[in-house]
Amino acid sequence: MTSAWVGQLVRLRAIEPEDWETFHSFDEYSDAVRNGHQLHPPQSAAQARKWAAELAERTQDLDEVRLVIATREGNTPVGMLNTHGVDRVHGTFSYGIGIGTPHHRKGYAGDAVVLLLRYMFFERRFQKAEPRVYGSNEGSLALHRRLGFVEEGRRRRCHYANGRYDDEVLFGMTIEEFTERHVS
């Protein structure tokens, strides 16, 4: 038996209440947090527990999902991804992905994105993924280019963090491009 949620390196799964500590520890890496969205003030362990428990209890939407990226062997959380900006009329969506700093450059993000795209394209009938990446996030820019995303544009100076403005790079990949590159 093969699960659509298991790749070569990772498995995508729902968050569990006990995952709070791992995600709470990822917040200690300010540069990585800024690359994902924005830096927040520190939160207490109690707040982190509550966040994880609430997500674990929430019913998942079929198209707007939030999933833990865990190692295939050991089921250890290494990051999270979510879909957003879902447009069912036009068949487009965006997503965000974050890998905890201790787990960078191990192939987890690429494997997780491919699993997500396979689900959104072949199970949910979407035709195009449109992620956005901050221009200073070299790792994510390289990842998306390596996966075959096309740079479609740039929003200049739309993100502020760490005392400077940053561009947002707009990427796109159609189902046909995905199929050609990632489906054998």
Automatic annotation (TrEMBL):
Ranges of residues in domain N-acetyltransferase: 10-176
Organism of this sequence: Nonomuraea jabiensis
Keywords recorded for this protein, A-Z: Transferase
GO molecular function, one term: acyltransferase activity, transferring groups other than amino-acyl groups
Pfam family, one: Acetyltransf_3
InterPro entries with a match to the protein in the record: Acyl_CoA_acyltransferase, GNAT_dom
Protein name: RimJ/RimL family protein N-acetyltransferase
Keyword hit for Nucleotidyltransferase: no
